[in-house]
Write a structure and sequence with these properties.
heterodimer; A: mainly beta; seven-stranded mixed β-sheet; four-stranded antiparallel β-sheet; B: mainly beta; six-stranded mixed β-sheet
Chain lengths: 115, 111
Amino acid sequence: GAGVSQSPRYKVAKRGQDVALRCDPISGHVSLFWYQQALGQGPEFLTYFQNEAQLDKSGLPSDRFFAERPEGSVSTLKIQRTQQEDSAVYLCASAASPGTTYEQYFGPGTRLTVT
Amino acid sequence: QKEVEQNSGPLSVPEGAIASLNCTYSDRGSQSFFWYRQYSGKSPELIMFIYSNGDKEDGRFTAQLNKASQYVSLLIRDSQPSDSATYLCAVVPSNDYKLSFGAGTTVTVRA
């Protein structure tokens, strides 16, 4: 079946531009996560949705980062006024149910480069 | 102290040998443990999960969990060149749902 998809796969933005990254989770998955992965590091948590509710945004690095999932399926991560330190791979993951024992499956990621 | 620690490697093993990867975690109440494989330039792929103490085998992979020692490991038997990748250990801490990752161990299987 279809896995998690993300678009665009690659994005180059000039410093100060706004970007929007899209995630399509596995159909029917309730939980959706965004992670940020810097080169040579493991992914770091950004934010979590259960259906359309954003239950945790503690990992968002600044108020320039905003995420939404208005209908409980597709999610968008928006970064305003991008900075060079925002350059990273942004990963979306979904899980079938809320809770701690359900496996998260990752999309291919969006590699953001801010010049 | 990071929540999840892994040896960064690189770990080099000959083809056909056993690769042994280790991971320690700081939250004693953690309940769920995962191993992801990540090829260069690709996203993490879930290969094993374990929730109870002991061993769990799936094909050539065995995950081992020891909650008393706060230790989880991954064994790859009969290593193949296609196993060359970075292996990420991930833990869900107690009363949480998000994954906390180690930095990963890079494995190279030499033919």
